[in-house]
Amino acid sequence: MELLPVKEIKINQAKIDKIDHLVKSIYRLIIYSRHHLDDDLLDTYLTSVQELEELLSLKNAQMEAQNEEEAAVYLKNLKVSLDFVIEEIILHNNFQKEVQLFQLLRLVSPETNAIHPNRYRQTLVQIGGHICPDQNIVPQLVGELFYQMQAITNPIIRAIYFHHELIRIHPFVDGNGRVTRIAKNWMLMYDLYPPIFINDATQKREYIATLSKSFRELDNSPKKWNEHTETFFEQELDRLLVNATLLYETVNKIGQEREKAIK
Q: Residue 104, CB half-sphere, CA atoms under 13 Å: how many?
């Protein structure tokens, strides 16, 4: 397997500009509106992010856990992971080191970490029709991925690229999806974007199908941008745009309600 070269990524700048406009609009409300309190709105922003993450946890637990007991454990582990990520962000630590993958794995999937503590998978795995790279080259590929990420200046594209390529590598026996999603959202939240989450089972199927098609095309032409990889990036941008809009509406509503109360 070869990683998709960063220079091949085609960026939808118009969509990114929309997302950035929404995020800036949120902070204009926080800083300049007479009907908001800074501390109040900052708390609201963090609460909104956590609510989105909790929705992410809930949806994925419903689709991945086999029973209520597994779902409860799944949600608990994701909540612990989110708390860890928020603490790291407060300490000005972004997701950018390989060791952080293992930190997340220990939190989000402790049972997987117990099988191979602080080690990548030792077996071959297959995702649908995609045969993941040989276990012997996984460390090399993961190291290269972290190196390649440094060349991507836009945090949104960096997060989506990391998500796409780490799932393709599939470095762990299990828990790859959970670790990847938390890592991606760590990068986004560090730069004050809301997290990306999947809304429902239909989106989940679409997400899996798009990744499968993208991986298949890249297996055939590993260094060439293709329509399915582009579709995956577009779908992620669309999800982020929806979440940024929701966050803006939530923050704006608080100011409107306070203004009405004053009148």
A: 27
Domains of the chain: residue spans and CATH? 6-258 (1.10.3290.10)
Radius of gyration of the chain (CA): 19
Please write the tens of the pLDDT for every residue from 58-106. 555 555 666 677 777 877 888 888 889 989 999 999 999 999 999 999 9
**Would you tell me how many other CB atoms lie within 10 Å of the CB of residue 156?**
23
DSSP β-ladder status, 126-127 and 130-131: antiparallel
- In one-letter notation, the amino acid at residue 51 is E
Q: Where are the beta strands (DSSP E) in the chain?
A: 126-127, 130-131
- Give 126's strand partners: 131
CA distance 64 to 173: 16
Closest CA to 90 of 187, 190, 177: 190
So what's the pLDDT on residue 198? Answer: 78
CA distances for 200 relative to 52, 67, 121, 193, 204, angstroms: 13, 18, 30, 21, 6
The closest of 59, 53, 58 to 200, measured between CA atoms, is: 59
Centre a 10 Å sphere on the Cβ of residue 191 and count the other Cβ atoms it contains.
14
- Contact (Cβ atoms closer than 8 angstroms) between residue 44 and residue 251: yes
DSSP letter string over 148-210?
HHTT---HHHHHHHHHHHHHHH--SSS-HHHHHHHHHHHHHHHTTPPPP---SHHHHHHHHHH
